[in-house]
Amino acid sequence: MTTFHLGEQTLQARVGMQAQLAQIGPRVMRDHMPDQHREFFGLLPFVVVASVDAQGQPWASVLAGAPGFMHSPDPGHLHVRAQALPHDPLQHTLHEDAALGLLGIQPHTRRRNRMNGRAHLRDDGFMVEVVQSFGNCPKYIQAREPRWTPDAPAGQVAHQGPGLDEASRELIRAADTFFIATAHPGAAAAREPSHGVDVSHRGGLPGFVKVEGQRLTVPDFLGNQFFNTLGNIAVHPLAGLLFMDFERGDRLYLATRASVVWDGAELSAFEGAQRLLRLEVTHAQRVQGDLPLRWGPAERSPHLAGMGHWPSR
To answer: Which of 1, 78, 81, 188 qualifies as a FRET site for 50, CA 20 to 30 Å off?
Structure first.
C-alpha cells in the first residue's frame, strides 16, 4: 500500500519532491492516531468533515458540540457524538461505511490534525475507523477562539441554486478562511489508504479569494508539498467548499469544478503564490445564522506578511 496516490505523486514530482516524500510520508502518515491527536480532538468544539455524494461530488461540512463531543476510545477509532446541522450536506452523504475526511483545528493555538477513515453509524452520531492520520503545520491559520453556543437561533436557507448570489459573493470577498474537500475517484469503495476523502484549511488576508461571476481564484501558498488537495483534483477535478461567517454564524456550501494554474501573468501578479486554484461554482447553498459557535477576534497569521493581493477590481 502506498502513502500517496498517482495524482499526489505526479505533483510531487513536478516540484522535485517525490523521492523525498516517498521517505517522509510513511513516517508521518499513520494508520492510527497517536495519543496527542486522540486527546486533541476531545478538546474541540467543532470539526470539519469531508464526504462524497452519490454523484462523486465532495462536500465540506461542519459539526459542532461541547468540548468532549468527540472521543477516541482507542488509537484506531474516533467517536463523534453529533448530528449534522440543518441544511448541511452531511445529512445526505453520511451512511454506513461512508468515506470521510476530518480536520480537527484549534484556530487560537493554530494546531490542526487530519484524519481520513470510514464511518460506522451510531444512535448518537458515528464512529470513524481510522485509515490515515497526520498532523499539519500552523501556517496561514488566523487565530480566533471558537466557543460552543448551544442556544444559537434556528437558521434558514437564504440562497440555493446553481450559482452564487451577491450576498454569497460578499461573504467570500470578506473571508480570511475557508475549507476545501476533495476526493480520489475511487474513494467510495477503496481500501487503499491513499484513495480516500480529504478536507483542508485555506487561509489568507481578507480578499484572497477573487470572485468573478461564478469563478473563484485562490492563491496556493507554500505548504507541506504532500499535495493531498491538488493531487485529488488532478485525478478527480471536483471540490466542495465551506465558508463560515464568523460574526453572523452563516454557512456557505459550494460545489465546484476545480483546476490548477501553474504559470502565467495572473499567478505572477500575486506575490507569494506558488500556484492558483481555479474553482467554477456549480451549486451554492447559503444558510443564515444558525452556526452554534461564537468566535473571538482574529489575529492574522504571521506567515501572511508580505503575501500579495489581487489588483483592484
So the answer is: 1
**DSSP secondary structure, 202-257, as one string:** EE-STT-SEEETTEEEEEE----S--HHHHHHHHS-EEEEEEE-TTT--EEEEEEE
Q: Is residue 274 part of a domain?
A: yes
pLDDT of 313? 55
- Cell numbers representing residue 232 in the block: 485529488
* CATH code, domain with 283: 2.30.110.10
Do the domain assignments include residue 1?
A: no
Amino acid at 11: L
Q: State how many domains the chain has.
A: 1
The cell numbers describing 265, all together, are 501573468
What's the count of helices (H) and strands (E) in the chain, helices before strands?
7, 17
Strand partners, 280: 215, 257
- Three cell numbers written together for 259: 483546476
Q: Which pLDDT score is estimated for 21?
A: 85
Cell of 151: 442556544
Q: Please, are residues 74 and 127 in contact by the beta-carbon 8 Å criterion? A: no
pLDDT at position 1: 52
Q: Is residue 311 part of a domain?
A: no
* Domain ranges, residue 171: 6-300
Whether 58 is in a domain gets the answer yes
Give the number of C-alpha atoms closer than 13 A to the C-alpha of residue 79, restricted to the C-beta side.
10
| Nearest-angstrom CA–CA distance, 75 and 302 | 33
Regions of the chain where pLDDT drops below 50: none
User: For residue 283, how many other CB atoms are within 10 A of its CB?
Assistant: 16
Q: How far apart are CA 73 and CA 56, in angstroms?
A: 31
Count of residues for the chain?
Answer: 313
Half-sphere exposure of 287 (CA within 13 A, CB side): 20
pTM of the predicted model, to two decimals?
Answer: 0.96
